[in-house]
Amino acid sequence: MSIKVKFWGVRGSIPCPGPKTMKYGGNTACIEIRFPEINRLIIIDAGSGLRELGNFMMANDFKNGPINTDIFLTHTHWDHIMGFPFFTPIYVPGSTLRVYGPVSFEGDTLEKVVGGQLTYRYFPVRQAELAAQIEYFDLKEGEIDLGDGITVTAKYLNHPLLCLGYRIAWRGKTVCTAYDTEPFRNVFCTDPEDPSYDEGMASEGELVAQEQNNVLEQFFSGVDLLVHDSQYTQEEYLAKFLGWGHSSFEHAVATAERAGVKALALFHHDPMRSDDQIDSLSKKYCVRAGEGDTEIFFAREGAEREI
């Protein structure tokens, strides 16, 4: 019994095709999680990588019957939903799609946010014209039973927009996603020389941040595969990107090791990061199977893992 994971998009922010990204890929987030023994498929995120996954499903799955799958969106920033209008199964009669994602703070439903891309203002096809049966589910933290023994647990992450990590479990195997997130940190002033400094608030802020970081580590404790945000080096993060909602390699590696993760996929690559740069970073951060307690590798478009 196994779970097969395939990366169809590994980039953050915006697709970046070209000669400098051919090895690791230029498509934005999309992960296929397949359960071959029970013929089930879960998709995490609908970035630009979803287009090629849809083409693959039509060429391979459709011949065995109508497409029937669950799509879990981590959040609705555009790089995580832009592939949806190009996902061929939504145009095929008989397809059944269940789309899950967090409710945004703006009050719009998930259907309105995702389906809103399918208007004549942005696209030549309207959502009302789609042939597939599509249901939308607004998610909060909690566990979902998908049947056949599959459970999906959702956990809020730390990102400028409400964002969820997912822990997928089936017959003792676990895959977890935690990207578009950065470490929780004290948001109160910690400089005693600053006029706004309050010792009590500074202390409380530090305690809350540490508690939330501990909760997130517990969320992916012991998983077989963790797909974690790692857009920056620690130096880049501290110099320019605090508060942008993304993590450093150093943070991802340290938390995965503390949590007893078996394999860590460094994910959500910066669109400016070239293949050569990632190869260089691999020599510094990656540990292969058998070399340490946590195997560490950079996610690559088209790569597959079986757990």
Automatic annotation (TrEMBL):
Q: What InterPro entries does the record point to?
A: Metallo-B-lactamas (IPR001279), RibonucZ/Hydroxyglut_hydro (IPR036866)
| Pfam families registered for this protein in UniProt | Lactamase_B_2 (PF12706)
The residues covered by the Metallo-beta-lactamase domain are 42-184
| Top-level taxon in the UniProt lineage | Bacteria
Q: What are the GO MF terms of this UniProt record?
A: 3'-tRNA processing endoribonuclease activity
> Which SUPFAM superfamilies does the UniProt entry name for this protein?
Metallo-hydrolase/oxidoreductase
The record's CDD domains line, in alphabetical order, gives: TaR3-like_MBL-fold
The protein's name is MBL fold metallo-hydrolase
Lineage runs:
Bacteria, Pseudomonadati, Thermodesulfobacteriota, Desulfobulbia, Desulfobulbales
